[in-house]
Specification:
The chain is of the alpha+beta class. It contains four helices and four strands, in the order ααββαββα. The mean pLDDT is 79.
Amino acid sequence: MSARFITGVLIIASTITMLSTAQVQARDRSKEIGTILGAAATLFIIGKIIEDANDDRRRPQTHRPQPQPDRWAKPPLPRHCIRWTEGRNERRVMGKGCLKRNYGAVHSLPQQCRTKFRVNGNQRRGYNVRCLRNNGYQIARRN
């Protein structure tokens, strides 16, 4: 039930109670007015308490702040630059030429990940994918 309805019912009920219990005899009107004002103030306070209790449900709930993106995060490496090497120890590498064309920060890649590999009998230069991932680089999910 709403707080206003309950407050109204309480006010009407207390007013009827005060009027029905009033003595028929003539008495000092100032006492009656004081009693009525005291009862009205009490009902007003009770109504405010009920209203404040109901306001708790309407307050917006606090939420956790969203994490801010890292300004210095490394952009993901292009997936289509990954190649399989030939030979005894096959491994995944990223060709240096493909990275130069499709990745703006080739100069910032770690030097320890540089490698030489063969594709179709030709020696190429590039970067070992496992080493790059171990150094915090990620591969883009799509081309």
